[in-house]
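FORM 12-B: Structure-to-Sequence Request
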């Protein structure tokens, strides 16, 4: 009788394991992580659009300015005219925009301290409110998707990393020293301080992620197996470790040191990309700037191909397709910068060709989502 009971327990445990990893769990980041990844790729498009604005033909600028600037939280620049107005030295929007972005980071910091430090608020988030709403998880996604746009805007506007090939606009190009039509040295240091603040907050956020991964996981070798076990325990209410220890910040990645920390790697790479664009805009011409960007994106794409950081193969595929589309766009920008004489790079044909090539990549991404939906794909049981 005891042997039968023991065997029943083993069968039940195996059944729970299998059902947990193939069922539709609330904790699963299978689709969630894919949507976030696509959103971040579009943010990279927006950053390139911001720093290479005039390398895009006028028709493309008119169509994409409100869309890509919305991804980068540039809601105050929703048309081409406002982009050039923002760069003008007599426009005070730079100060107001920088103050707004700094205010948002301060709000995030205050919320982080309130819910992260031991106290009633943290206890309620972990043990009371989580039944209806996982505050930490949604706060994490909001910060994750806001980090790069806020940093890019503070770095771009705070350092006045503006460039133009139009002499009439270049005469009145912003130098971060004007306030209400007059020279004011305090404005320069204030805007520069907001840019530095943006980099500090971005690095601080990634240090928090490193801390969570370092003190919540067992080892890089057994990372994936350990995370899966915690997912099973949480989904069947055995314990709440998966939620309390913020496993959703790293549970989508495979075992291994570099793959386990890949979210931090991508964020730091994005920070370095923004810093490079700001520095090279102030120092070098567009040719050097676009060449360096191509090298950085190719380097990142090769790293993703080699390590395949995500647990789901489909997510890695979407990742590679998204970065490849960025490379294609950069090659087109390079052709415009070098003034390649070809009909493909005339205003109208450039838009069509760029749309077809980029659209094909994102069409493949859409096909992946449709296929996963039809097949009702879930987390794989094994690697």
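FORM 12-B RESPONSE
SEQUENCE OUT:
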């Amino acid at each position: 009788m005891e042997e039968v009971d023991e065997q029943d327990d083993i069968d039940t445990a195996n059944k729970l394991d299998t059902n947990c990893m193939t069922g539709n769990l609330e904790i699963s980041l299978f689709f969630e992580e894919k949507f976030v990844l696509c959103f971040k790729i579009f943010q990279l498009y927006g950053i390139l659009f911001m720093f290479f604005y005039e390398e895009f033909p006028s028709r493309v600028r008119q169509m994409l300015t409100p869309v890509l600037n919305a991804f980068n939280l540039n809601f105050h620049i929703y048309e081409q005219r406002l982009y050039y107005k923002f760069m003008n030295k007599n426009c005070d929007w730079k100060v107001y925009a920088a103050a707004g972005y700094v205010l948002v980071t301060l709000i995030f910091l205050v919320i982080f301290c309130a819910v992260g430090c031991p106290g009633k608020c943290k206890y309620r988030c972990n043990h009371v409110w989580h039944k209806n709403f996982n505050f930490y998880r949604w706060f994490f996604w909001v910060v994750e998707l806001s980090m790069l746009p806020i940093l890019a805007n503070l770095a771009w506007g705070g350092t006045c990393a503006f460039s133009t090939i139009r002499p009439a606009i270049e005469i009145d190009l912003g130098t971060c020293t004007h306030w209400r039509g007059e020279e004011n040295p305090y404005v320069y240091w204030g805007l520069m301080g907001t840019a530095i603040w943006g980099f500090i907050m971005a690095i601080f956020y990634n240090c928090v992620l490193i801390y969570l991964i370092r003190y919540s996981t067992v080892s890089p070798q057994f990372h994936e197996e350990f995370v899966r076990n915690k997912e099973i325990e949480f989904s069947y209410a055995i314990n709440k470790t998966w939620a309390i220890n913020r496993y959703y910040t790293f549970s989508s990645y495979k075992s291994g040191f570099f793959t386990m920390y890949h979210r931090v790697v991508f964020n730091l790479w994005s920070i370095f990309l923004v810093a490079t664009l700001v520095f090279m805009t102030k120092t070098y011409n567009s040719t050097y700037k676009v060449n360096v960007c191509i090298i950085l994106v190719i380097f990142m794409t090769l790293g993703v191909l080699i390590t395949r950081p995500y647990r789901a193969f489909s997510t890695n595929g979407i990742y590679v397709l998204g970065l490849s589309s960025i490379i294609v766009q950069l090659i087109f920008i390079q052709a415009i910068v070098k003034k390649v004489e070809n009909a493909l790079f005339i205003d109208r044909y450039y838009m069509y060709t760029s749309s077809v090539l980029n659209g094909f990549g994102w069409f493949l991404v859409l096909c992946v989502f449709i296929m996963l939906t039809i097949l009702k794909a879930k987390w794989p049981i094994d690697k």
